[in-house]
Amino acid sequence: MDLFEGLFILSAFVFFISMINALALMANNKLRTVRIFGWILFVLMFAMIAIMINFFIVGRDLKLIIYSILIISYLLTEFLLDTIFKIDFRSKPSLHIPYIILEYAACFSFVFGAISIDSTLGWVISFLFWAFLAVLVYYLIKQRKNKKESLKK
What are the pLDDT digits (tens) for 45-77? Predict the structure, then answer.
């Protein structure tokens, strides 16, 4: 494993840990703290750009370059919609559905990219993906519960 492959694995780790923490904080209404993870993902975008350039120059598999492009696309979209334009796209299905598709494309790109670089570390990243899904379910349950409680009042 070379430096940029290791950076890809580290980026996947940071990505999933950030997403897990952001969802857990949002589930518990700690929205001010969530912004920290938005900036972490923004910085991660630059690491992914360097990785993609290296993969392109070195002549790595086309699939790793495509994975990198999907990940960068998601990170850029996340940053632009949440931080720059501050659009409430999550409440509009016409905007949220394409965003979700891009988000899962990035997640799967990290998982499959990590597995193709190093199978052992790739499975660790895969475990983090499943942890991310578990926290997402927790977030959705808490959100639904809070909505029911607010309707009762």
Answer: 999 999 999 999 999 999 999 999 999 999 999
Q: Are 109 and 73 in contact (CB under 8 A)?
A: no
Burial label for 14, CB within 10 Å (0-12, 13-18, 19+), is middle
pLDDT in tens, 83-101: 888 888 888 888 889 999 9
Alpha-carbon dihedral sign for residues 90, 20, 107, 67: positive
- In this structure, the number of other CB atoms found within 10 A of the CB of residue 59 comes to 8
Q: Residue 52 contacts by C-beta under 8 Å, 6 or more apart in sequence?
A: 65, 68, 69, 72
Query: Helices (H) and strands (E) in the chain — how many of each?
Result: 5, 0
pLDDT computed for residue 86 by the predictor: 83
Burial degree of 95 (CB within 10 A; 0-12, 13-18, 19+): middle
Instruction: Indicate whether this model's pTM tops 0.90.
Output: yes
Name the phi and psi angles at 48, rounded to 5. -70, -35
